[in-house]
Amino acid sequence: MADMTEEPKAKQTLVQGEPKAGGAPAGRTVLAVDIGGSHVKAELSSGSDRRAVASGHQMTAARMVAALRDLTADWHYDVVAMGYPGPVVAHRPAADPFNLGSGWKNFDFEAALGRPVRMVNDALMQAIGSYEAGRMLFLGLGTGLGSAMIAENVCLPLELAHMPYRKATFEDYVGERGLERRGKSKWRKSIFDVADRLSAALLPDYIVIGGGNVERLKELPAKCRRGNNDNAFRGGFRVWLDDSLRL
Q1: 166-182 b/e with 16+ CB inside 10 Å = b?
Q2: What value does the CA radius of gyration of the chain take, rounded to a whole number of Å?
Q3: Can you tell me the distance from the alpha carbon of 116 to that of 110, in angstroms, rounded to the nearest whole number?
Q4: SS3 for 36?
Q5: How far apart are alpha carbons 170 and 174 in whole angstroms?
Q6: pLDDT one-digit tens code per residue, 104-115
Q7: How far apart, in whole angstroms, are the C-alpha atoms of residue 160 and residue 163?
Q8: Which residues of 127-151 are buried (b: 16+ CB within 10 A; e: fewer)?
Q9: Which of 7, 53, 70, 104 is least surrounded, with the fewest CB atoms within 10 Å of its CB?
Q10: Range list of β-strands (E), 122-245
Q11: 71-108 in b/e burial notation, b at 16+ Cβ within 10 A?
């Protein structure tokens, strides 16, 4: 089927007042942070190189803040957007992530960084960066299965990975485990089947398939477009700068 391809210490100055609802005040710079199980990556909306620090099972929330301060010591930014690998409530982690250390749940990143922080699930942040219009379903193929939906600019994090599918869950078939256990050919067939089932259930106008393993797909299912991990940073910027989105 057709491939519809479009993928020293930090400054301590405290921002005075909360930015306007829906966007950062004019001239303010957004620091987008993509928190992953192997790396934490950062980039500025004003234009910068992309920087990263290794994470892993020893990376607690407090250690991440310290590493981020060092990583961005020579950068100026006013507000922060974070993509978090787990559920998020009121812009804070609702649970510790599976692939990182402890101390994340309810951690106050605004107080720790001295900046206003908006946090969303990491799949949703990449979805926001991929969104064009209408009803879009995002599926992130990585270690597991990330998912999110944006319907007429309303951003909805989803947790589809562990829903029952065949003899296990969606994630067991289309995540990294499924790829390693069943091989690339069967894994690709599962991607097509899962995309078809979710399309029938959720009725998106189009599906964006992103995540690191999208590169292993030669072709895409119907109504699908290829995403790009770079969209996570674009999504982080839009979290603050796009007034049309409703988080």
Answers
A1: eeebbbbbbbbbbbeeb
A2: 18
A3: 5
A4: coil
A5: 6
A6: 999 999 999 999
A7: 6
A8: bbbbbeeeebbbbbbbbbbbbbbbb
A9: 70
A10: 135-141, 145-151, 154-157, 164-165, 168-169, 206-210, 224-226
A11: bbeebebbbbbbbbbbebeebbbeeebebbbeebeebe
pLDDT score, position 15:
30
pLDDT in tens, 125-161: 999 999 999 999 999 998 889 999 999 999 999 999 9
User: How far out from the chain centre does Cα 55 lie?
Assistant: 16
3-state secondary structure of 186: helix
Report the distance separating Cα 174 and Cα 106, nearest Å: 30
Lowest-pLDDT range of 44-48, 135-139, 185-189: 44-48
Which of 38, 73, 31 is closest to 52 using CA atoms? 38
**Among 122, 123, 155, 153, residue whose Cα is nearest residue 138:** 123
